[in-house]
C-alpha cells in the first residue's frame, strides 16, 4: 500500500508530532495551510519555493512583494517562521518514506476493503514488515487507518438512528506497544486516546497490549474496564493497573505470585471477582483459519482449561 501526500491530514500529523520533533505550533500551522491550500497543501509547502498558486492564494496581484519566500508566506499566514520551518522539516521526514508518494493513493480503497471485511465478521491484521521498527511509519499508518475506520463506524452508527439491525457489528481494535500511541504526551492527539475515552460509543472497543502500563496515560487506563495482568516486576506498572481498584492490596499479592509463563490475573467489569487463569497449550497440528473452539478440542482436559483459582 502507498500513501499519497493528499491523504495525510493535519490530524495525522498530531499523532506523530513527537517522533517528528515538530512543535505544537508547527502542527497548528498545518491546519492553516490545509485550510488555505486545500488537498495539495502538503506538496505546496514542501516545494523549494512558493508556487504561483500559493502566491495567488495569499496576495492580490497588486499586493505581491518582489521577493516572496517561505518566511514571507509564514508571516502572511499568521504563523511564526520558526514554527513553519519546523513543520516543513517534519513533513520532509515523512516524504522521504518510500511508501509515501506525491498526490493521491490507495488509502481510500484500502479503508473501504478493510471495513467491508470487518463488517463481514473477518479479522484484519496489519503488518508493517521491514517498517515495523520505524516508529514514525508505524504510528503514522496505524493512526491513519484507525482514524478512518473509526469515522466509517461513526457514520454507520449515526445513520442507523437507533435501529440495531442497521448498526455496524462490534469492532475490537488491538494495539501492541500501546504506550507509543496513548502515553501521557500523545493520548490527547492519538485517535486511540479518543476511542478509549468514547469506548463502545460507536460499537468500537480498544484492546490495549503493553509491557509497561505505567507509561500509558492514566485517563486512558481508567477507561479500560477489564484487565489481563501477567507477571510484572515493576511496582509502578503494578500500581498503574490496580490503583483505585477495591482490594488492590490483595491483587498486588496475587500479581507477585504469578508464574512467568502462561498465567494471568483477570479482573474488572467483565468478572464478578478476580480470576487467575492458565491458557491451554494449543496443539501443533492446528490448521490456519480454525476457530478457537475447534483448536481447544482435544488440546487439554476441561479442568486444565478452566480458571486455576479464584481470588476475592
Short description, anyone?
The chain has a domain at 1-105.
- The whole-angstrom Rg is 24 Å
Strand content: 5-15%
Summed over residues and divided by their number, the pLDDT gives a mean of: 82
- Structural class, by secondary structure, is alpha/beta
Low-confidence stretches: 298-312
Can you count the beta strands?
8
- Quaternary class: single chain
Distance linking N and C termini = 49 Å
Q: What kind of sheet is the major sheet?
A: 4 strands, antiparallel
Structure characterization notes:
The chain has 312 residues and is of the alpha/beta class. The protein has a domain at 1-105. It has helices at residues 10-15, 24-37, 41-46, 52-58, 70-77, 81-95, 107-119, 135-160, 179-182, 191-197, 218-222, 235-242, 248-256, 292-296, 302-305; strands spanning 3-4, 100-101, 171-175, 204-208, 226-229, 264-268, 275-277, 309-310. Strands 5-6-7-8 form a four-stranded antiparallel beta sheet, with no helix packed on it. The protein has a two-stranded parallel sheet with strand order 1-2. Strands 3-4 form a two-stranded parallel sheet. Helix 2 (24-37) packs across helix 6 and helix 7 (107-119) crosses helix 8 (135-160). The relative contact order is 0.08.
Amino acid at each position: 500500500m502507498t500513501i499519497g501526500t493528499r491523504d495525510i491530514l493535519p490530524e495525522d500529523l498530531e499523532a506523530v508530532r513527537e517522533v517528528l520533533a515538530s512543535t505544537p505550533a508547527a502542527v497548528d500551522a498545518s491546519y492553516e495551510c490545509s485550510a488555505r491550500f486545500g488537498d495539495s497543501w502538503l506538496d505546496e509547502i514542501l516545494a523549494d519555493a512558493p508556487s504561483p498558486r500559493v502566491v495567488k492564494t495569499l496576495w492580490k496581484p497588486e499586493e505581491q512583494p518582489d521577493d516572496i519566500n517561505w518566511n514571507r508566506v509564514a508571516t502572511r499566514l499568521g504563523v511564526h517562521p520558526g514554527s513553519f520551518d519546523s513543520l516543513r522539516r517534519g513533513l520532509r521526514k515523512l516524504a522521504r518514506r518510500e511508501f509515501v508518494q506525491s498526490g493521491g493513493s490507495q488509502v481510500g480503497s484500502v479503508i473501504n476493503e478493510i471495513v467491508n471485511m470487518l463488517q463481514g465478521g473477518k479479522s484484519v491484521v496489519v503488518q508493517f514488515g521491514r517498517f515495523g521498527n520505524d516508529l514514525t511509519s508505524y504510528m503514522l499508518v496505524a493512526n491513519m487507518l484507525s482514524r478512518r475506520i473509526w469515522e466509517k463506524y461513526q457514520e454507520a452508527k449515526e445513520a442507523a438512528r437507533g435501529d440495531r439491525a442497521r448498526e455496524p457489528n462490534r469492532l475490537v481494535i488491538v494495539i501492541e506497544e500501546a504506550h507509543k500511541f496513548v502515553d501521557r504526551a500523545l493520548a490527547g492527539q492519538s485517535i486511540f486516546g479518543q476511542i478509549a475515552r468514547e469506548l463502545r460509543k460507536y460499537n468500537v472497543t480498544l484492546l490495549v497490549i503493553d509491557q509497561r502500563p505505567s507509561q500509558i496515560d492514566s485517563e486512558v487506563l481508567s477507561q479500560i474496564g477489564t484487565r489481563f495482568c501477567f507477571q510484572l516486576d515493576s511496582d509502578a506498572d503494578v500500581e498503574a493497573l490496580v490503583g483505585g481498584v477495591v482490594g488492590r492490596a490483595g491483587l498486588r499479592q496475587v500479581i507477585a505470585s504469578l508464574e512467568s509463563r502462561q498465567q494471568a490475573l483477570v479482573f474488572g467489569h467483565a468478572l464478578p471477582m478476580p480470576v487467575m487463569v492458565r491458557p491451554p497449550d494449543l496443539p501443533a497440528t492446528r490448521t490456519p483459519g480454525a476457530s478457537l473452539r475447534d483448536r481447544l478440542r482435544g488440546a487439554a482436559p476441561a479442568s486444565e482449561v478452566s480458571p486455576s483459582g479464584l481470588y476475592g
